[in-house]
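Practice record 12: protein with 3LM.
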Amino acid sequence: MAHPVDNSNSSFATRAIHHGYDPQDEHGALTPPLHLTSTFSFATAEQGGEMFQGERPGYIYSRISNPTLDLLERRIANLEGGEAALANSSGMGSITSVLWTFLESGDEVIVDKTLYGCTFAFMQHGLSKFGITITHVDMTNPENLIKTMNAHTKIVYFETPANPNMRLVDIAAISLIAKAGGARVVVDNTYATPLLTRPLELGADLVVHSATKYLGGHGDLVAGLVVGNMEDLIRIRMEGMKDMTGSIMAPFNAMLITRGLKTLELRMQRHCENAMTVARQLETHQSVEKVYFPGLESFEQHDLAKRQMADFGGMIAFEVAGGMQGGIDTMNRLNMIQRAVSLGDAETLIQHPASMTHSTYTPEERAEHGISEGLIRLSIGLENVDDILEDLMPALPTKTSKVAA
Ligand code: 3LM
């Protein structure tokens, strides 16, 4: 077991680089070792038996734990301000492992209106098959949660900012209400990352991440993370993950994410700075009808964004004149910006939620859940912002919305 350097008073960037690893425990190796092993050998049969009974610490099998994953788990737990973490094979693996652990037939999950497409599908079409009720509530007004909470509510779940329309949820206000009613609060912190928002410090119980995005940061892996208190994390690991989803992270991916975290602060600073510049430019363009970016004064929840987020992130959603076709045409005129789903990569990515990430909703559901058919989503990358603008701005429709109408 490693002997972590004491850096409890260090800043975010320093902990992201050092926390939980002392090179002197690994022959002085500056870079932590990669333990590419599926299983672990027991010194004696009795010791193996004791580990299975939970009477002796140690590694058994890499679907349960692995030293390379342990380091990443310690590090993300530290950055999110939690006691423990779990590394999964995908963000969906994290979300499903958490929900399968704490829910049973007859229970209710209350979720915000807008969710990432596959999370929505898992709840709407997956959990509902097993006698679990999914209730959507507009959490932008916490009063709505007070009215809906009941004895069956076990989980309150939301994203902030939400994928794809950037809605924010007041984590502290919602957590207070949910916990008073005896429910666990689960926050998908993929968009904000622990650099910008730390839901556990604001009262949430569990944080889930698609580590595929900003945490990995380089678009070369699919992975997920869960952070929370020790007791919950042991249950999620041993119930929802080990026996139900089996969604453990591969050691190689854990190594890449641990590497990615070292530059998270630097990368996020650039993502945020670039996105602010692009959002301002988009807002002034004659054929852009609406820009959804928490850093804009025109953003409906700008005050909450200033209160809850250290900076405004790298994601922008917008609508152009000409609706859906106007958006599709804009995407097809781009050169450097890549037409691709996913987000948080070095490359600027653009996608159309209604036909891509949120095609798991019916058109009626999209309308009800605040995802317009013409919405375009931009994940602003790390390129020079002038180059992003040089590609994006000429691709926008030339007509004003008034002329188009
Ligand atoms: C996307 N999102 O392009 P994985 N939570 C959030 C997410 O955005 C995602 C997940 C969980 C996208 C993926 S769409 C086919 C591509 C807020 C993923 C799920 O299982 O690691 O993909 O995470 O919006």
